[in-house]
Amino acid sequence: HVQLVESGGGSVQAGGSLRLSCVASDYTFSSGCMGWFHQDLVKAREGIAGFHSQGRTRYTEAVKGRFTVSRDNAKNTLYLQMNNLKTEDTAVYCCATLSGGWSFGYWGQGTQVTVS
Questions:
Q1: Pair 21, 77: CB distance under 8 Å
Q2: Residues in the chain with pLDDT < 50?
Q3: 33 with 53: CB under 8 angstroms?
Q4: Distance between the two ends of the chain, CA-based, in angstroms?
Q5: Which residues contact 4 (CB under 8 A, 6 or more apart)?
Q6: What is the signed CA dihedral for 65, 67, 70, 76, rounded to 10 degrees?
Q7: How far is CA 85 from CA 14, 16, 30, 70, 81, in A?
Q8: Which of 44, 64, 97, 108 is the most exposed place for a label (fewest CB within 10 A)?
Q9: In degrees, to the nearest 5, what angle opens at C-alpha 30 toward C-alphas 79 and 56?
Q10: How far is CA 88 from CA 8, 31, 32, 39, in A?
């Protein structure tokens, strides 16, 4: 079955950067739509960046210009470069397969990002 494993989270000060990685297995990574969502105790699960149909990237307004999603198909790995982090970015970040818009199919356990 599909497995997604995230890494790269941590604690940073506001204005700092982090790079998250997500390794996929048992999934046709090169042709699949994939993205990232975040969630915490207050916020509902929200898609923030991803590769949608025809390889187009989409971002929510809150992260445009600060976050960049990328992928390495040879390594079955999805990345999220997060720059100029803000305290409101604090959340668990999960990568997921996308099945139309921000509908999530499979997702990983997530990695915690804390911005202070």
A1: yes
A2: none
A3: yes
A4: 37
A5: 22, 23, 24, 25, 27, 94, 95, 96, 97, 106, 107, 108
A6: -170
A7: 5, 6, 29, 18, 10
A8: 44
A9: 70
A10: 18, 32, 29, 11
Residue of 108, 107, 89, 87 whose CA lies nearest to 99: 107
Q: 10 Å Cβ neighbour count for 56?
A: 9
> How far apart (Å, rounded) are the C-alpha atoms in residues 77 and 47?
18
Q: Does residue 2 contact residue 97 with C-beta atoms inside 8 Å?
A: yes
The pair of three-digit structure tokens given for residue 96, joined into one six-digit string: 């997921």
Q: What's the Rg (C-alpha) of the chain?
A: 13
With beta carbons less than 8 A apart as the criterion, state whether 81 and 67 touch. Answer: yes
Pairing relationship of beta strands 10-12 and 111-115 according to DSSP bridges: parallel
Give the pLDDT confidence of 70-103 residue by residue, as tens digits: 999 999 999 999 999 999 999 999 999 998 888 8
Burial of 80 (0-12, 13-18, 19+ CB in 10 A): buried
